[in-house]
Amino acid sequence: MTLNVGDAAPDFTLPATGGATLSLAGLAGKKVVLYFYPKDDTSGCTLEAKAFNALLGEFEAEGAVIVGVSPDGMKSHEKFAGKYELAFPLVSDEEKGMLEAYGVWVEKSMYGRKYMGVERTTVLIDPSGKIARIWPKVKVPGHAEEVLEAVRAL
Fold first, then answer.
1. 77 is catalytic
2. Is the pTM of this model over 0.70?
3. What are the extents of the domains in the chain?
4. Could you tell me which residues come within 8 angstroms of residue 49 by beta carbon, excluding any fewer than 6 positions away?
5. 37-59 burial, b for 16+ CB within 10 Å, e for fewer?
6. Stretches in the chain below the pLDDT threshold 50
7. N or C: which terminus of the chain has fewer CB atoms within 10 Å of its end residue's CB?
8. Which is the catalytic residue, given 33, 34, 45, 55?
């Protein structure tokens, strides 16, 4: 399924770090930054998480919530969040329903081998629950800053 700017963001209810359950409906009225990443504690994913974490206060000042999403389980998420003192929730989508709904669970290829995985993507959702911006195939350096600028403009 391909999502476009202006579409209603697909709702989800999934387990999150800190023993919470997170749903899009529960975040209504806020700007939501959903960033989808392949794997906890890998180099690119760690850099991305640390970049968002470093700017968290600025996102919060704009009324925005950051949520990291990957197919890793909760044990992995808790360890990753603890190791880097991440102050925003990481959501676990082991069933991949949310990843599929947002179109980020895709066929990838490495060294000629095809496999299914998460395409690093960020989705900005406006306070009414509509998609305001989509960043596909994210390159990590400078990305969190770019998302913050979009949040400020929203």
1. no
2. yes
3. 13-153
4. 37, 68, 80, 84, 86
5. bbbbeeeebbebbebbbebbeeb
6. none
7. N
8. 45
